[in-house]
Structure formats: C-alpha cells, structure tokens
Design brief:
Oligomer: single chain
Mean pLDDT: 79
CATH architecture of the domain at 28-211: Alpha-Beta Complex
Helix content: 10-25%
Low-confidence stretches: 20-24, 221-240, 249-281
Number of helices: 6
Strand content: 15-25%
Radius of gyration: 23 Å
Length: about 280
C-alpha cells in the first residue's frame, strides 16, 4: 500500500463525506429583505417550472415559534383528512388557514448598506405564495435558464407592511461568477420538508391539538452516524468502508459477531426549535 500524509488523508475523507447520499454540510437560510428599498443580487436555481417545489401549509402561533406544518388535504381537496383544517373551520385563530406556497432556491448576495458592496453569495430559500410561480414562468420565458442570469430583487414596503411587493430586474453586468456564484451544490440532496415546514401524521397533529406539543419521534439518524460514533467512541463501519474505498484500500474481513452486553440507548428528541421569521403574502 502506498504511503500518504495527513493532508492527503483528510482530503479523501472530506470527499467521501461529501459524496452523494451524505448530509448537506452547507446551511441553507431564508431570503430576507427587511426594509423598504433594500435590494440583493440573486441567481435563481430554476431552469424549468418542474424544478419548483410547492406545499400547502398551516402556520401555527407564536407559542410554537411560528412553526409551519404540512396540510394533510390533497391540493384542491377539502376533505376531513386534516385536523388543522377542522380546527380552523371551528374558529381556532391560533392556526393559520391552509396556504399554498412555492419555495424558490436561490444564491443571494446581500447589499451592505454602509459600503454599497454586495456580499459573497449564500444559499437561501425564498418562500412565496404559490402564485409567484407565474412570475418565475415569465422570467423563464423572457430569459431562459435562470441559473445563468443574475437578477436584482428590491423590496417595496416597510417592515410589517402587509402590502409589501418585490420587483425583479435582470442585471446583465453582474452575469459573472465573481458577482454571484454559480455553485448550487448546497442544494444537492436538499429536502424542503426538512427545512421549511414539518410533515406530521393525523395522529401526531391530534396529539399536538390536545397537549400543545407534537410527540417525540425516535429515528435512526444515518446522516450523523459518524458523529454519533465519535461521541460514543464506537467505530462507524460504513463510514470507514467508504473512506477505505476512496483510499484504494482493501476492506478487512468482518470479524464474526461476539456476544456483548446489551446497551440501552436513550432516544434523542427529534424536534429542533425552528424560528420561522416573518410572513409571506
């Protein structure tokens, strides 16, 4: 076997850990322009309307930090499948009506108010009413693949103004990677239902309505298996195998299993607090 140093080893480990199927290490935020007249340069991760992601969601009250939960009714259906819809119909004002949303993936360079310079682009989701997809359709018709274009988005309306709108203008002078990156890899394996809203069963929703809390869910977190292994000082065989394969090493034969004392693992809470700031209208 050839020799290698630590830097070479770490490079291979990083490649193995970022391979398809592994968790996304880059944090994807939410697009936000706070004040009237603020603007930002954006590159939209859309080349076809089929790439847009939609969902119908209910927004809960401030007591749940404005949590959003997927509606259980199919689009266009008004059946009794969704307990949240039923509560809204009964007059519960702590639950928002089912609202159709579109989630637009973008790379955004925000403008510094003091210097007038634009920042390094960061990956974000822009949540808008589903009707905003018509504006995306117009942009596609006029400019083609939006990933190849840079637009300036400007907010028109003060913070809290329910009539706030956004204007989108094509800015050819910024059509270069130095201005706004063309690297959309942050959205590889990205799942909108793990980012912008919760998906809960009818039973879980009924529990929430009765207790004010969703039941905790125990699951095997394979994406963070290596981290859990490190914390417990137990080698992660699958991660090691990927690294050894990347290094060109022949995996060692798996030893025969031996009886070991049973260890009871305590489940971790599966409900991270999320702060859904602001509203979309």
């Amino acid at each position: 076997m050839s020799q290698f140093n630590y830097s070479q080893y770490q490079e291979v480990v990083n490649r193995a850990q970022s391979a398809p199927g592994t968790s996304n290490a880059v944090k994807v935020g939410f697009f936000k322009l706070k004040a009237d007249g603020e603007d930002a340069l954006v590159r939209i991760n859309v080349s076809s309307l089929d790439e847009l992601q939609f969902a119908t969601v209910h927004q809960l009250s401030a007591a749940t930090k404005w949590m959003k939960v997927s509606c259980l009714n199919e689009v266009g259906s008004y059946s009794d499948n969704c307990p949240l819809c039923k509560k809204v119909a009964e007059g519960d004002t702590s639950i928002g009506k089912a609202a159709k949303k579109v989630y637009v993936q973008m790379l955004v360079a925000y403008k510094d108010a003091a210097t007038g310079q634009y920042s390094t682009a960061v990956p974000v989701i822009w949540e808008r009413p589903a009707g905003f997809s018509k504006e995306i359709a117009t942009l596609l018709k006029n400019y083609g693949n939006l990933k190849e274009k840079v637009f300036k988005v400007t907010r028109n309306g003060a913070q809290g103004d329910m009539k706030t709108t956004y204007s989108i203008a094509y800015i050819p002078v910024y059509d270069k990677p130095e201005a706004v990156s063309t690297d959309f890899s942050a959205f590889t394996n990205f799942k909108i239902n793990k980012h912008s809203y919760w998906e809960k069963t009818a039973e879980e929703i009924e529990t929430f309505l009765a207790t004010g809390k969703f039941p905790e869910v125990v699951k095997a977190d394979t994406a963070t298996g290596a981290n859990e292994a490190a914390k417990n000082l137990i080698p992660n065989a699958e991660a090691d195998a990927k690294i050894e394969e990347a290094l060109g090493m022949k995996p060692e034969a798996t030893p025969a299993p031996q009886a070991t004392p049973a260890v009871e693992e305590k489940p971790a809470a599966d409900r991270p607090a999320r702060n859904f700031n602001g509203f979309s209208f």
